[in-house]
Amino acid sequence: MSEPPLRSEADAVLASGALGRSPLLKALFEYLLEQSLEGRRVTEFDVASEVFDRGEQFSSTLDASVRVYIHRLRRKLDEHYSGAGRAAPQRIVIPNGEYRLVLEARAAGAESPPVRPAPARLPRWAFAAAAALVALNVAAWAWFAVQRPADPLRDIRRSEVWAPLTGDSRPLLVVLGDYFIFGDTEGGADVRRLVREFDVNSSDDLDRHTLAHPAAAGRYVDLELRYLPVGAGAALRRLLPLLAGPDPDRVRVILMSELTPDMLKTHDIVYVGYLSGLGLLESPTFAGSRFAIGMSYDELIDIVGQRHYLSQAGAAVGASQPHIDYGYVASYPGPGGGRIMVIAGTRDVALIQAAEALGRRASLEELARKTRGAAGFEALYMVEGLARTNLDGKLVLAAPLKTRDIWTPQAPD
């Protein structure tokens, strides 16, 4: 028996990735598909109960989650049939006021109606242009590292600090600490501002946040947008030529949101970003450390020395006010025998300073003297900054890491 046309078209939509990465959106689509194939007419309450796990207390007056997600699903379908699915002879629609999928024939040569932009999305070309610019710069830095006739960085790569990474043959991932942001309509039709919440780090987190706060369901918009700190680009420009070396194909740049536990076992890793963006690497990095994160990621606490190091960058008023920032560097064995290096800062100037210090012979020799022979080490830099410019910096502390504790499960307190 041949497959129902609605099923075939739905499979094509799912295979295209048109619905994005939200499991809830996919679950809603698949639920409506199954109910439609069975000829069952479902209500908003049915969807709330069976897809969103709402109980008997569900009230459509107080909880707009179902309507919000139906709206999002319609938009995703419109975008699909205006893009990758433009040539499809039929399209899936969700009739207004109904909770079912319908396969609708399209007139020969007909174009999908233009998709009205999501509420105040920044133009997609702007994001595409920014992404292209980043990609172009990354490619240029890698080319620059390979094409120069002389290699002034050879001695840096052979230093005691870098040799465990640059002397290894396994693939190397440069991981940039990225952040998820979403739109806030403030109850209106358009996005009024972009929001960064530390407990909302993905589309899935935003879905969970929306389900936990039904009153805000129509307020927040998933723009499928992430951002990188300005300092990450400057640090990357300094580090990529060093890391590329004679084998640039070994190096790949990814985002922290793309890093998986399996990659920790099969790759060497260099993290570049804020302390707050460490993500998957935060727990192992501080498991064997003398430091702990303080009240915020702008503060490091030296547990051994009983000292607090608090960045002033977040409190600096105006671009003309000098401030103190802190950079953090760590290097330790990975779970699969590779090497993990963390190059981080509380804010931009410290991140840039840490990257620059690891590219200077004198700084590397000082670091090696203070950590010689250690299987893993960490270092703290104090940096004087003005706006996003690092004026001066010095090594405050360097010490071995307790590498035996890094990958050992910790007993609960």
Query: How many domains?
Result: 2
Radius of gyration: 25 Å
Q: Distance N terminus to C terminus?
A: 59 Å
* Widest sheet: strand ordering: 7-3-8-13-12-14-15
The SSE string, one letter per element, is: HHHHEEHHHEEEHEHEHEHEEEEEHHEEH
Secondary structure: number of strands: 15
Main sheet overview? 7 strands, mixed
Q: Helicity level, as a percent range?
A: 25-40%
Mean pLDDT: 84
Query: How many individual helices?
Result: 14
Brief overview, please?
The chain has helices spanning 5-16, 23-37, 44-50, 65-82, 124-147, 154-157, 163-166, 203-212, 230-244, 261-266, 282-287, 348-357, 361-371, 403-406, and strands at residues 90-93, 102-105, 172-176, 179-184, 193-195, 220-227, 251-255, 268-274, 291-293, 299-302, 307-310, 322-333, 339-345, 377-386, 389-400.
Can you describe what's shown?
It is a single chain. The chain is an alpha+beta fold and 413 residues long. The protein has 14 helices and 15 strands. Helix 1 (5-16) packs antiparallel against helix 2 (23-37). The termini are far apart.
Q: What keywords describe this structure?
A:
three-stranded antiparallel β-sheet, elongated, seven-stranded mixed β-sheet, 35% helix, 413 residues, 23% strand, 14 helices, Arc Repressor Mutant, subunit A, alpha+beta, 2 domains
How are the SSEs ordered, and which strands pair?
Layout: H1 5-16, H2 23-37, H3 44-50, H4 65-82, E1 90-93, E2 102-105, H5 124-147, H6 154-157, H7 163-166, E3 172-176, E4 179-184, E5 193-195, H8 203-212, E6 220-227, H9 230-244, E7 251-255, H10 261-266, E8 268-274, H11 282-287, E9 291-293, E10 299-302, E11 307-310, E12 322-333, E13 339-345, H12 348-357, H13 361-371, E14 377-386, E15 389-400, H14 403-406
Parallel strand pairs: 3-7, 3-8, 8-13
Antiparallel strand pairs: 1-2, 4-5, 4-6, 9-10, 10-11, 12-13, 12-14, 14-15
